[in-house]
Write a structure and sequence with these properties.
Oligomer: heterotrimer
Number of strands of chain A: 0
Structural class of chain C: mainly alpha
Mean pLDDT of chain C: 81
Largest sheet of chain A: none
Largest sheet of chain C: 3 strands, antiparallel
Shape of chain C: globular
Low-confidence stretches of chain C: 399-403
Radius of gyration of chain C: 25 Å
Number of helices of chain A: 13
Distance between the termini of chain C: 44 Å
Strand content of chain A: under 5%
Order of helices and strands of chain A: HHHHHHHHHHHHH
Helix content of chain C: over 70%
Helix content of chain A: over 70%
Strand content of chain C: under 5%
Strand order of the largest sheet of chain C: 2-1-3
Number of strands of chain C: 3
Largest interface: A-B, 62 and 64 residues
Chains: A mainly alpha (332), B alpha+beta (579), C mainly alpha (403)
Structural class of chain A: mainly alpha
Number of helices of chain C: 18
Chain lengths: 332, 579, 403
């Protein structure tokens, strides 16, 4: 087992390298550079000097060297966990990420927990009452939820539930209110949570369908197995049969999904963060790409890639831990 | 377990361990460095505060009291974008930075009067420019000091100037404005003279509006120290910096040590809300007091009785923002080279309709030239080209463009009148303009292909002159120098993106730059204005005043000819919201 | 000459082919049939869009002469779409005929021949259409001509608006008798743009999924069959592609290339093939060890034949199912891109772009701009998802036995 883990960990390094090279290449091939933005037409700039200034800035940030050299320099810096400075924000990238990552993680974790707590029981129930009303109804409703585009839902929620017309049921944007830092801890927490309700709703509703389907499919398969029939024949009650026997054996797909779900959520929040003005990783990455903030782009890609790979690894390990039939010996 | 594989695993394990340990060590090292830097900054700030010596200002003279009303309360602004730095001079600063620090924390030697197109002294009690324009003189007041009590002297002026023009300081764009300064001469602690290489009517303004930084706080050995000072700005203004909650707000407290009369509002808070809808809702729910709304929002609420009971809808022309939105026609293209065609294009676009339906802003104006519509440089007798499709078609046909192959698109010498119209993607205004222009021109047999580009790519293409037509906006001031945009020398590397080349215009621009007498200079500009109007190198779409929403509890809100003055507002005690 | 009754008897012996079995299973569920019906309606709307919603009349009499503006302004695109529809229909009818009159063993061969002939016809004709049909710009105000009596006897399409026509006086109006679903921010009719928008959504869905499936199948097949080192390196490559946030990649690439519909389709296809690749790889792993494949290998058949003629048809089922979900996903991605401002260039109508106008910046909620495009996306995606689910159930042998 440890063999396998060490091998996978070592393998992550070339994979990460591959990811960073790809992202690097793509982001540099794209036209545009980060300085032209600062020199917007918002003022009557002496553009005669602009070309010179651009060259100066490029030198300042090391962008005039040939591409492979730039990549290697970046790599060397990253080895010391120094992701450089953001060109737009003029701050170390790590700081930016330290600010934004917790927000995105909180949002996603809450959504995650909600999705799992709701989907698993629903999936089990749907499998148990296969082809009955609950199964069919939940199936259709879940599909509908899955098909609703998040932009629609977000805007409907903002349009109908926020604002004075509806007595400010929910705040339309941001993470905390104006006066939040003057509140004692619990009120501050409550205020924070109040702001998170709508974004979390948007994030969760589409996750239900997928997970429930998987749980249901897995449960259906186990429920048909012989050992379940034996258990029932032995006279065990239905609940014990379902939860202690069938369910345990259908955990595998759930775990594999768990491993891939978290990194996937990180990317999917761009739209939600945009709609609700939440300063999270999604917006950071989006803005970085549009303003050609290369250091941030690379940092986000690396971190997201790393989390992805770790997630996959954890999933596989959990897979092995749960199912004794699975082993990771090298291929015959 | 095989002995060989065991040994190998051991080595791998040790290797990993070494890598991990080195990482941890380097992180700790980096942290320690940051900590040291932080304590250094803290110590600096603490050290200065201990040197506070309060010298009484003129604030106790009630007869000269500028500000009336009750003290107290906060003014909560909304800014649509968080600034990257509080350092006004470096490249990274944006308009958000300036909103926050300029005038509040930093002051300059002169400023515009509220009601006239003239300068008046702020930190300076006297200033002048010589007849030939080569000598500029400032005399500072004797009762001015920074928020920590240290008096302001010409050393600080010199320091500010030197910092801006220091090539290692990240302020190259700003430094450009001072390229004509030959040298300066410090006469004494209060008087200073700048010697210019050539006469330029804007030089007094540039020098006089430098934000004066305290030398004793900002002086540096290495320019990078200055560049990286992102926060804790210290100046001489009526407010001091309190804190910056990254991602949410910046707070300024009133400078209790202010050398002049203190404003009544005790605290200014700047909240960052990027989503425009959310910003408006924050205003209406009381979370913010002062908002710069989108034009749509303004028009929508202007007629809302309920809204007007709670909020002011302010609309004013300000010294800081007199820009205009335009469509540029690249004269390198065969169809845009002829001025008749450009006039026709302007007449095909219904600008009144845009003003009424897209902008929905009755205060907006259709500019006829590149100057501030109500400013002295603009000739008020010039009226914009009308919306006249017939006349436009006549002009097009006069220029030789007919639909000879019956495909609905005009052509001449085998070249169809089809061009690509570059806009910024993601901007609703740009998209609306583009769709409108495409439809309007299609009715006259001109085919427009809309090309949206991301902002950074857009800018690059503009710089590289890679476009047929484009949407853009210039910002502006009360008075501006058209050289960068309209002089033919700026076609290749300057801001003359559309390749406007008119020798008569060139001569007028050059002459005006050196004319110091405002009247004669403006006469020259009137003639220049007329040329632009005839040639239509741009189709000017609109220019509009500043618009603001403000909570009605604030009193003494007056609109002057050149803008508004937030420092003179106050809130009566019974209506004050924050303590 | 074979007797008719003999022929019928022979046909009874043919049994049911895989495709027919899946189809029968699929048709058992009413929900599937409804969803399929929706999709067909959507296709019809997309194909006949210029005839349903157009600001030019079918026929109009100007100064005594009849002219047919609508027909003369059809673009090469419109013709190619109509051509594709016709050929598609012919192909379907041929397939039905195949099932009735040709015996199973020959069917595959015949089908392949028909497909290649149809494909060739399609390609040659579309190329000719693109070359010979000129693009025509016609922005004359026919309705104005009618109302000012310069023309008469006009027959307009049911929705007499063009998707690029603007009318600032009528902007942002809620649904009314004139504009059944209201107008957008420059006064274009929402219903008209919705209908044309279906073209964008559907074509993005299909082309993107086509590209991603193609790449996924090829890569998955190669990896799954060869295993070992090839698989090792290939899996690393797939992991790399999967680890890069897709949206990120798309936005970066979109910034580089021109903003045409085709480019966006290609980009979405190029960034979403990893799922298919993993599926096929898994399937091929399973199939590799099966007897009939071992037999083919020992017979010395060429690799190309083994992969694509023997293994692929057996492993294609999950890919097809995935493909329907992929279409739904591609439609979502395109809508999201347009919503963020990175989609097709204006004035091309796109449902996502219309959605982005829904909440106006004044906070005024333009419900018709949110609801209708949102519903359109919702219904389309739902239909595809349901069809995909139905296919999956139809294809899965275990569920069939279970019922």
């Amino acid at each position: 087992m440890t063999d396998y883990i060490i091998r996978r960990l070592l393998l992550m390094i070339p994979t990460l390298l591959g990811i960073t090279i790809m992202v690097f290449t793509i982001s540099r091939i794209a036209p545009g550079d980060p300085f032209s933005i600062a020199m917007g037409p918002g003022g009557q700039l002496d553009a005669e000097r602009f070309a010179d200034i651009r060259e100066q800035q490029k030198k300042l940030h090391g962008l005039d060297k040939p591409l492979p050299v730039q990549y290697l320099i970046w790599l060397k810096r990253v080895a010391t966990l120094n992701f450089g400075d953001s060109i737009k924000h003029h701050r170390p990238v790590i700081e930016l990420i330290k600010e934004r990552l917790p927000i995105t993680l909180t949002l996603n974790l809450i959504a995650f927990v909600i999705i799992y707590t709701v989907s698993i029981p629903m999936g089990v129930l749907a499998a148990v009452r296969h082809k009955k009303l609950f199964d069919r109804l939940s199936s259709v409703i879940l599909f509908m939820l899955w098909s609703l585009p998040v932009m629609l839902v977000g805007q409907l929620l903002i349009g109908y539930l926020c604002g004075p017309a509806f007595k400010n049921w929910f705040p339309p944007a941001g993470l905390s209110s104006n006066y939040a830092d003057t509140l004692p801890f619990f009120s501050w927490l409550g205020d924070r949570l109040w702001h998170l309700v709508l974004p979390v709703i948007c994030l969760t509703y589409s996750g239900f369908a997928y997970l429930t389907k998987q749980v249901r499919a897995g449960m259906l398969e186990s429920l048909r197995a012989d050992y379940v029939r034996t258990a029932r024949a032995k006279g065990l009650s239905n609940t014990i049969v379902i939860f202690r026997h069938a369910f345990r054996n259908s955990i595998i797909p759930i775990i594999t999904i768990m491993a891939t779900l978290l990194p996937a959520m990180l990317g999917g929040s761009v739209i939600i963060e945009r709609i609700f003005s939440i300063p999270g990783m999604g917006m950071l990455a989006f803005e970085a790409v549009t303003t050609r903030d290369y250091n941030v782009v690379m940092a986000v890609a690396t971190i997201a890639g790393l989390m992805n790979l770790i997630g996959l690894l954890l999933g596989d390990i959990a897979y092995a831990a749960v199912d004794p039939r699975v082993s990771f010996e090298s291929k015959v | 377990m095989n002995g060989q594989s065991g040994l190998f695993k051991f080595f791998v394990f040790i290797l990993l361990l070494i890598v991990v340990v080195t990482q941890i060590l380097s992180i700790m090292q980096a942290n320690r460095l940051y900590e040291r830097l932080d304590t250094l900054v803290e110590r600096m700030a603490a050290g200065e505060i201990r040197r506070q010596t309060v010298t009484a200002g003129k604030a106790d003279d009630f007869s000269m009291s500028k500000y009336k009303g009750d003290e107290g309360d906060w003014l909560v602004w909304c800014l649509g974008a968080e600034p990257a730095t509080m350092n006004q001079m470096v490249e990274a600063s944006t308009w958000s930075t300036r909103w926050i620090v300029s005038g509040n924390i930093f002051e300059s030697m002169i400023k515009y009067k509220q009601d006239e197109f003239e300068y008046t002294g702020m930190l300076a009690e006297d200033f002048s420019i010589s007849e030939d324009g080569l000598e500029i003189y400032f005399k500072l007041r004797d009762d001015i000091f920074f928020s920590d009590g240290v008096p302001i002297t010409t050393d600080d002026v010199i320091f500010t100037f030197e910092t801006i023009t220091d090539p290692n300081v990240d302020a190259q764009a700003y430094a450009n404005y001072f390229a004509d300064v030959d040298r300066y001469e410090k006469i004494n602690d209060r008087e200073i003279k700048f010697y210019m290489k050539k006469a330029y009517f804007l030089s007094l303004g540039f020098l006089g509006s430098m934000p004066i930084h305290p030398k004793h706080i900002y002086e540096y050995q290495d320019a990078r120290q200055f560049n990286s000072r992102r926060t804790n700005p210290v100046g001489s203004g009526p407010y001091v910096f309190d804190k910056w909650d990254i991602g949410s707000q910046v707070i300024l407290n009133r400078n209790e040590n202010y050398w002049d009369e203190k404003p009544k509002i005790k605290k200014i808070v700047y909240r960052f809300i990027t989503n425009d809808t959310a910003a408006l809702q924050s205003l209406m729910s009381g979370q913010i007091d002062y908002l710069r709304p989108l034009p749509e929002q303004f028009t929508d609420k202007q007629n809302d009785e309920q809204f007007n009971k709670e909020f002011y809808c302010l609309s004013y022309w300000s010294a800081g923002n007199t820009g205009y939105f335009w469509i540029g026609w690249n004269q390198a293209r065969p169809f845009f080279a002829d001025k008749k065609i450009r006039q026709a294009l302007t007449m095909l676009i219904d600008r009144e309709s845009i003003k009424e339906h897209i902008l929905r802003n009755p205060d907006a104006e259709i500019p006829t030239g590149p100057f501030y519509v109500y400013g002295p440089q603009s000739d008020p007798n010039i009226k914009p080209w009308p919306y006249d499709v017939q006349r436009a078609i006549e002009l097009l046909e006069q220029a030789g463009w007919f639909d000879s192959d019956r495909d609905g698109v005009r052509d001449k010498d085998g070249v169809p009148f089809r061009f690509r119209y570059m806009i910024v993607s993601g901007s609703q205004l740009h998209e609306q303009m583009a769709k409108l222009v495409k439809d309007s021109l299609a009715r006259a047999g001109i085919d427009v292909i809309i090309d949206p580009y991301e902002w950074s790519v857009f800018i690059q293409r503009v710089q590289d002159r890679q476009f047929d037509a484009l949407n853009m906006a210039w910002g502006g001031g009360i008075e501006s120098d058209p050289y960068q945009i309209w002089h033919s020398s700026q076609i290749e590397r300057g801001s003359n993106y559309v390749r406007f080349n008119n020798p008569e215009a060139d001569k007028l621009i050059e002459q005006a730059r050196q004319t110091l007498d405002p009247n004669s200079r403006n006469q020259l500009y009137h003639r220049f204005h007329r040329i632009i109007h005839e040639e239509q190198p741009y189709t000017f779409i609109y220019t509009r005043p500043e618009q603001r929403f403000l909570h009605r509890r604030f009193e003494n809100v007056k609109i002057y000819k050149l803008g508004i003055n937030e420092h003179e507002w106050y809130v009566p005690i019974e209506k004050q919201k924050y303590k | 000459m074979i007797n008719m009754t003999d022929k019928k008897a022979e046909q009874k012996n043919w049994g049911v082919s895989y495709g027919q079995m899946v189809k029968n299973e699929f048709m058992k569920n009413k929900l599937n049939i409804i969803s399929l019906f929706f999709i067909i309606v959507l296709f019809l709307l997309a194909i006949f869009a210029p005839f349903i919603a157009n600001d030019k009349p079918y026929v109009i009499r100007i100064e005594g002469k009849l002219s047919f503006p609508l027909f003369s302004s059809l673009t090469a695109n419109d013709y190619v779409i109509l051509l594709a529809a016709c050929i598609g229909l012919c192909q379907l009818l041929l397939m039905r005929r195949n099932q009735r009159t040709i015996e199973p063993t020959m069917r595959g061969h015949v089908l392949r021949r028909q497909l290649s002939i149809n494909a060739a016809i399609f390609i040659i004709c579309s190329v000719m259409l693109y070359i010979f049909i000129p693009s025509k710009l016609d922005a004359t105000d026919y309705k104005g001509m009618i109302s000012s009596n310069r023309a008469s006897d006009a027959v307009f399409a049911p929705i007499p608006y063009g998707y690029a026509r603007t009318d600032l006086r009528k902007r942002e109006q809620p649904p009314s008798r004139e504009h059944w679903l209201g107008t957008d921010d420059v006064g274009s009719d929402v219903l008209c743009r919705l209908i044309y928008g279906s073209r964008i959504s559907l074509s993005v869905g299909f082309v993107a999924v086509g590209i991603s499936s193609l790449i996924g199948i090829i890569i998955g097949a190669v990896l799954g069959y060869f295993g070992g080192k090839v698989d090792f390196i290939g899996m690393r490559f797939i992991e790399i592609m999967m680890a890069i946030p897709v949206f990120f990649l798309i936005i970066t690439i979109v910034a580089y290339w021109e903003r045409s519909l085709f480019n966006i389709m290609v980009i979405i296809g190029l960034t979403t093939w990893t799922g298919d690749a993993r599926f096929i790889r898994a399937e091929f792993f399973k199939l590799r060890n099966q007897d009939f494949i071992q037999a083919a290998v020992s017979l010395g058949l060429p690799i190309r034949s083994i992969l694509f003629r023997h293994m692929l048809p057996n492993g294609i089922a999950p890919v097809l199912v995935n493909a329907t979900f992929g279409v739904a996903g591609a439609i979502f991605i395109e809508a999201a891109l347009s919503f963020l401002g990175f989609g097709v260039a204006p004035p091309t109508p796109s449902w996502g772009q219309m959605l982005s106008l829904g909440v106006s910046t004044t906070g005024r909620f333009l419900w018709w701009l949110t609801l209708f495009p949102g519903l359109a996306i919702f219904v389309t995606v739902l239909a595809y998802n349901l069809v995909g689910e139905g296919l999956r159930d139809a294809v899965d042998p275990r569920l069939r036995k279970a019922a």
